Every structure is written in structure tokens, then in C-alpha cells.
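Subject: for your reference before the review

Hello V.,

The reviewers asked for a structural picture of the protein, and I figured it would be easier to keep everything in one thread rather than splitting it across files. Below is the amino acid sequence we used in the manuscript, unchanged from the supplementary table.
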Amino acid sequence: MKKIEILSDINLNEVYAWLQHPEAGGIDLFIGCVRNHAHGKSVIKLEFEGYEPMALHQMDRLANKAIEQWPVKKLLMIHALGNKQIGDPVVVIGVACAHRDDAFKACKFLIDELKKSVPIWKKEYFTDHTVWVNAHP
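And here is what came back from the structure prediction:
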């Protein structure tokens, strides 16, 4: 079972509740959140934009690859769009498997591949300027 979403806000309690499965002895949960610094400068906030139909399609494709490679009971991928403040969760990858090693491996694969291939762009706001972190269309 999988859940793939693009949201404005991520509720971590709902994420954990959804991932629970009676056959899963290991739930690996990666939470990417806004930090207060980058490149030696203070970050004020981040802004995320994305091409939602393509992002959802690509996230689903990655989820299917993970499900083929590891014995996944449940898989969740959520990315937020919009303005995010320091500490806000912006991406969550969750994998529930019978064993922790499979959950760790699948989760790492998913976040690494999401960062490489999903069309979501991040803009960093510093005290003196802003910059798109990755290529923006």
C-alpha cells in the first residue's frame, strides 16, 4: 500500500499513524525540514514550487521501484509546496517493512532519487538576497 501526495502542510502524527502495519517490525521515517542556515548564511525561510502532475507521477514511479526491490508493507512520500519557516517539515519519506534493514534501504533510495528527479524547486531566502537552489524552469 502506498500514499503519494503534494500538500501545503505535513502532519507528522498522521504520517506515523498511516505507516503502521501489523506485519511491519521496522518503520523508517525520513523528515526533511527547513534549517536556519546554508552556505554560511542565515536562512529566513524557504519557498517550494513544483510541477505537481509530473512530480506526483515521478514520485509514484519511484515508489513502485522501491516496492519491486524491497518487501514493503506500506510506503509514503509527501512533499510540501509553498513558503516554509524554520523547522517546518517539507518532505517526508516513510517505509514500513518486516525488518529494519529493508526499511532503511528503501527509504534512502526514495529520498535520494526524489532529490534527483522530482520536479520540485527550492528557493532560499537569506537576509540579503534569495537564490533558487536547483534549476528552475
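For the response letter, the relevant points are probably these. The mean pLDDT is 95. The CA atoms of residues 36 and 42 lie 6 Å apart.

Happy to draft the paragraph if you're swamped.

O.
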